Amino acid sequence: MNLGTRFELAGVGLELGGNPVLEGLDLVVEPGECVALVGPSGAGKTSLLQILSTGHAPTRGRVTIDGIDPATASAEVLRELRSNVGSVHQHHALVPELRALQNVLVGRFGRQGTLAGLRSLYLPRRRELREVHAVLDRVGIGELLYRPTTQLSGGERQRVAIARALYQAPRALLADEPVASVDPARARDTIALLVELARERGMTLLVSLHDLRLALDHFPRLIGLRNGRVEFDLATDEVGPSRFDDLYRLPRTAGGT
Amino acid sequence: MSAGFTARPLLGRRSATVLAALGLGVIAWFQLGLTLDDLLPDPARGATARAFATAALHPAFDYQGDFVPAAAPPFWRGVAAAALRTVVFAAGGMFLAVIGGLVLGMLASASWWRTAGAGPLGGRLRPVGLVAARVTIAGLRSVHELLWAVLFLAALGVSPAAGAIAIAIPYAGTLAKVFSEQVDEVPRDASRAMGALGAGGTLQFTCGLLPRAARQMASFTFYQFECSVRAAAVLGFFGFPTLGQKIAASFANGNYGEVWSYLYALIALVLTIEMWSARLRSGRSVR
Amino acid sequence: MSDARDAELDRMRRQRPRDRFARATALLLFAFGAGAWLSGALRPGELFGSRQQGNLRRFLFEELPPAPLRGDGASWSDWFGGLLGGRGIEAALAGANTTFWIAALAIVLAATGGALAAPFAARTLARPDPYGRADAEHPSRARTLTAAATALRFLLVLARAMPEYVLAYLGLAVFGFTVWPLVFALALHNCGILGRLGAETIENLDPTPMRQLRLAGASRAQMLAASGLPAATPNYLLYVFYRFETCVREATVLGLLGVASLGYWIEEARIRAYYDELVLLILLAMVLVLLAEVASTAARAWIRRSG
Predict the structure, then answer these.
(1) Which of B13, B42, B105, C247 lies 20 to 30 A from B133 at CA?
(2) pTM for this structure?
(3) ipTM, 2 decimals?
(4) Span A126-141, mean pLDDT?
């Protein structure tokens, strides 16, 4: 069983192309916590997740992941850090030309050298096959092991993406709008699955969501973002309806998409 | 969009291009000093033309010459052997061209330098490396395979390997150019996701980008193979033992039926490859 | 338990979908390519034979360096004036000029021919009910169009199956030594290529606007004039400029057959074994091709920008 990752942000700000995207974020996410990030489009949810997955370095302030600041970490340590943080992307970010199996095997690339990675992708060992099959089974599509990804439905692809993150065996799982483009019933299933998996494996889980109902139903802690700032950071039962009205209140000037 | 507000130019770019092209054709006519009279077959060659044209319907099934060496193989086997040698030249050339094209194409693609070529050393080499690779490619491509063959003939004399290499050089350039463009145009989300989970640059390139371009790359390579078969046939006119050599020899001897047999063999080769490629393209996207 | 699991994995592996044809093709081509070298059919060893090495040394150190460099007292101005049998470099430049215009005329003819052929060869048009509505009034005409499209596509394949060089060789023998056979050879081959690319462009067009025109009662011709052809033109022009570049390459080489383009002088230099001149002319051909490439790239960028 993995121990979850601890994220800490102190006075974090981010500018992209000269525009402030995040400002003055102070947050702590404890190991094994399940947190939903909510807020309107353009609030900075994606940027925050990218900072946590070391995709962006903050322009101001400091991020530490399990006590390590990725900005000052060596390439070696950074790679290790990345292999411990899994992501599920809105558009899955799979290689459609590869099979489901191969897309899942990619999950371990962070711990493999070039040759080992290529070997596992094209000549997987029995042990790896069993593991990938088990993971795909866990997300309910074990039967699709050898299916080319192009032949999978949107929902199946999403499950492959989740399976890839599981096979990575990370200590934290970040999901950016994982259900933005799926129907409500499947969205519910997917979120339930993510939370269940995080609890099962003790992973820290951060999910950005549009849908407040889903956030309220599945997560004990909600962080509301608006215009790059934390609007609220509360346990779910403390969040009243007025909070959401404030969060999604339309600004007088036209906002982004 | 803005069409409602701005006046349309008198001449759209499309029509401008078409008109300019037609104008170019007219200028070419005068530059080349063409006359319509030249379009009629040369009267002195009328008999040749007629004999050659009628032979199209009667390709030879046996040697037409008077002096056939007793040891000569049956005619059809000669045709088949020349066709096979043509394919061997083409395949040999393409073999080297694909290797060269992959290596150069990698070095000429921005995405290779961004992933596999990243790192402290690659970062410093990148501006030079990318330009050097692209200049090399342009240089290789700009000399036609027949000119490479002429050059090798001058430098080495007739050697089959030199013929195949003559094909390989410009084809490597063309493959490299197209490969690099194809890889650079592929969506990057998957390779970025690999980077985010800690995969090294080489894995990001080989597993996140290459597979996405592989189908198009294979399809273009196959098309180039078809072109290389034609090129190999033409090499025969310069003394290499391919179909072109047979065509030239039979034509010089006035054995027009034989010429057509070789021509039909060449057409059959190209058509086979064409049909093969159509079948490939209709296949499923599975590797 | 794990045995049952492994058996299950093996079953899935055996039943995995795969493209055997593509795999077999790749293997076959690899075997052919590697075999061409390894079997000795191409005699790669010869390249390193003593005769070839001797040839190469003579070429590099005696024949390639221009006379003034060989140290036999010739001056650069003599060498320069003596190029191309005393005609000087101007003749080569004139040859380059001819080469360019042969390519230009050929591509104009090929583009015209290809544009005329493309709508008749496109599979999406050559059917009784193009874009969703049948030509009820002319059922027999639709059949004729379909048959014509098949025949036309075959002719286009034939046109591009023949190498330009072979076409020009035969053309020169029949028409005599004018520029026409070269122009025709290039035009015919490229017409085959552009006709097919044009047809594919039409086939890949967004069908919606044409469907709507069809539903509004437009005839085939009206539909094409109003939507199909304008939409297909930019892409088609991209192909034309791309082929123009290849035409310049080919036009140079067709001169080797003995007509006054750059290739003619290259062949002359080769026959006389003036290899310093040969390399100079090949470099000139290279410059010409690079110029054509720059022009073609610029033209394509211009068309792309206009969408």
Answers:
(1) C247
(2) 0.89
(3) 0.88
(4) 94
